[in-house]
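Sample intake sheet
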Amino acid sequence: MQVVVRDNNVDQALRALKKKLQREGVFREMKLRNYYEKPSEKKARQKAEAVRRARKLARKRAQRESGLPATPAVARPARP
């Protein structure tokens, strides 16, 4: 992985690096490797993640097909 520092702007380069690491999933991987995860727990976590991804994809498809708003509108009573 490579980040270019332009005009000695280290802060901007650091932000870019963090964004790239986040996208690659490095922080998540480090968090998971901090402790031992039993194979049964790992399997359950991966299954839950797959279900979450499938639901998110289905929700996005439904929004695209039916033209629903991105977030449901919450009806709030008017204040007197």
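Comment: The helical segments are 10-24, 26-33, 39-66. Residues 39 and 45 are 10 Å apart (CA to CA).
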